[in-house]
Amino acid sequence: MMFFSPSSSRISLGLLNDWREDVACVFARDPAARGMAEVLLAYPGVHAVLLHRVTHRLWHKDLKLTARLLAAFARWLTNVDIHPGATIGRRFFIDHGAGVVIGETAEIGNDVTMYHGVTLGGTTWNKAKRHPTLGNNVLIGAGAKILGAINLGDNVRVGANSVVIKDVPPCCTVIGIPGRIIQQKGIKIQDPRGIDLDHHLVPDPVGKALSCLVDRLDELENNQKRFVVAEEACDGCEAEGVCHGEEIVILKHAAGGK
C-alpha cells in the first residue's frame, strides 16, 4: 500500500525548503538573533510564517475549515493574523510580530521584511481582489497600514505609521498619512544581502517647507525695504497735508460736515 504519492512528496520537500529559508533569513535581518534554537523557540513572527505555509497549502487543497482553525491557533500563539488565502513569497520575515494583520487576497513577494503593527487590509466587502500586492525586497515600517488592492513595487520602503492607499512605483520611500512619495531612486539601493533597512533615513518634507517659507519671508522683507520711503523724506513733500490730516478736515467742511 502506498502511503504517499510523488506529488505529496514534492509538496513536503517544498514546505521544508520554505521553512529552512524563512528561518535562515532571520540571521541576515535581525542582529539580535544569536542561534537557531532561539529563533525557532522565541520568534513569534517566524512561528506565524511557518504555520502559514501549512495553512496556505490546506486552503488550496480545499480544506478551508482546517486551514482557518490552524490559522486561528497561530493567531492565538503569535498575535499575528495571516489569512490562509494570502500568498506569501520566499524568505518573508516579520520582526517582533505583534499586531500584524494580512488579509485574504494579499500578495507578498520575495525577501519582504515587515515590522510589528503592520496591516495589509482591504477597503471593500466585495469578494474580489481587495488587499495589497507587494513586490520583492519591500520593507514595511512598524505600524504602517497598506490598504486596498494597490501595488507596491520592488524595493519600496514604507515609513513607520504611514497609511498607504495608492500605488507606489519601484525604489521609492513613502511616509505620512496619507502616504506620499518623498524619495525616489532610479536604481536599486539594496545592500549585498538584498534588504535596505535604512527606512529611518528619510527627508523631512515639513521641515523643508518651513525652511523655504522662512527664506521667502526674508526675501520679501528685503525687497520691501527698497520701496519704503524714510520719514525724513516727507520734509517739503506735496502730500504733507494728507500726512497731517489737513486735507481730510477740508473735505469735511466742503461736504457740510462739522
Major beta sheet, strand line-up? 3-6-9-12-14-15
Please write the CATH class name of the largest domain: Mainly Beta
Uncertain residue segments? 1-10, 187-194
Q: What percent of residues adopt helix (DSSP H or I)?
A: 25-40%
State mean pLDDT (0 to 100 scale). 79
The second-level CATH architecture of the largest domain is: 3 Solenoid
Strand content: 15-25%
Instruction: Summarize the biggest pleated sheet.
Output: 6 strands, mixed
- What is CATH's topology name of the largest domain? UDP N-Acetylglucosamine Acyltransferase, domain 1
Query: What would you call the structural class?
Result: alpha/beta
Structural key phrases:
single chain; 258 residues; alpha/beta; UDP N-Acetylglucosamine Acyltransferase, domain 1; 2 domains; 6-stranded mixed β-sheet; 5-stranded parallel β-sheet; 7 helices; 15 strands; 38% helix; 15% strand
